[in-house]
Specification:
mainly beta; AttH-like fold; 9-stranded antiparallel sheet; 24 strands
């Protein structure tokens, strides 16, 4: 296993040169992000909050995104139907946002236009998601969507935190926190039908990121959350984005604690994302198969701005090993894996 630098105490994210003070990973968000310390044009600064909530018994899920890429804000809501294998999305763009959408640290992000309303409130032990998409028409013909969901975050819950830079330009950096396996409760109403999300069978996660990126990037990410042996469990797998020699973001969550993995690789068919995938690590602590249900595919090609995204939702099965050598078995564990290429 390669040596990974674990950060264990608070520190500023960037120094006076705009370089990361200490690259590595942490169990808690120790780095302090200050947008004014970034040594890059506002065109290169990327800030985003992405939530997903998946329910095994409902066979439904929802994803919510508020992002500010400097030159534009990209917001999206996607309703997922695992029973029928569909993904219905409403997205919208705000131009020349320059950090206005995501700036500040009030614990609340909000966006509203004619197509979409999103509000994310972060309080002690809870993330409240309030949302509506009046123009959404589901694949089943249901018109309009709105809802409220609470994600519960225990005070001692460990998370995935990573700060890395690009080898070719150290002022380009990636600071990311992923909180996995939060239980969820609330409702989503689609048309005239209301879906009630219960804590016992619903789980969600947050992908919170801030950075100044290079122009062209491709990454792979996989995530899942739920319960194993009646305890909260989750996985976070990711690679291909920035220089990961200081640390990877690959880890297991079990009963509120992080179990660190080394390098992980995805084996998949790039000409058929709905074919089965395989996830393996170099230390033989992770061996998972992934059977897709629905590919949330999107593609944008606007000359200098290009994005091709395959976020594939499905089920993980296989075996993982915790830090103490304990093996856990996964059987049709709901989550997703993605392959994303961005030029922006």
């Amino acid at each position: 296993m390669n040596i990974q630098n674990e950060i264990t105490a608070p520190c500023p994210l960037l120094d006076d040169r705009g370089h990361i003070t200490e690259e590595g990973w942490a169990r808690h968000p120790y780095w302090r992000y200050d947008r004014t310390a970034v040594k890059a044009s506002w065109l290169r600064i990327k800030e985003w909050d992405y939530y997903y909530v998946l329910s095994d018994d409902l066979k439904r899920g929802i994803t919510l995104t508020i992002s500010d890429l400097g030159y534009a804000g990209l917001m999206a809501l996607c309703w997922l139907d695992f029973e029928n294998g569909t993904a219905d999305q409403v997205d919208t763009i705000a131009v020349l946002t320059r950090g206005r959408i995501t700036s500040g640290d009030s614990g609340q992000l909000e966006f509203k236009d004619k197509k979409l309303f999103l509000r994310f409130e972060t309080g002690e032990g809870c993330h409240k998601l309030v949302f509506s998409a009046p123009s959404l028409v589901s694949s089943l013909g249901e018109a309009g969507l709105h809802g409220e969901i609470d994600l519960y975050q225990p005070a001692d819950l460990e998370s995935m935190n990573i700060a890395t830079s690009w080898a070719e330009k150290r002022k380009r950096f990636y600071y990311n926190r992923k909180i996995n396996g939060m239980s969820a409760s609330g409702f989503v109403k689609v048309g005239n039908k209301e879906y009630s999300f219960r804590q016992e069978t619903s789980s969600g996660g947050l992908d919170w990121g801030r950075g100044a990126w290079t122009y062209r990037n491709r990454w792979f990410w996989g995530s899942a959350g739920g319960r194993v042996n009646d305890k909260p469990f989750g996985i976070n797998l990711g690679y291909g984005f920035s220089d990961r020699s200081p640390a990877s973001e690959n880890l297991l969550f079990y009963d509120g604690k992080v179990h660190k993995l080394g390098d992980v690789h995805f084996e998949y068919n790039p000409s058929n994302y709905m074919a089965p995938w395989q996830m393996l690590d170099d230390d033989m602590r992770l061996n998972l198969s992934f059977v897709p249900i629905v590919d949330r595919f999107s593609s944008v090609n606007l000359a200098l701005i290009r994005s091709v995204q395959h976020q594939v939702f499905g089920r993980f099965s296989g075996r993982v090993v915790l830090d103490d050598g304990t093996g856990l078995k996964l059987d049709n564990f709901l989550g997703f894996a993605e392959d994303v290429l961005n030029h922006w």
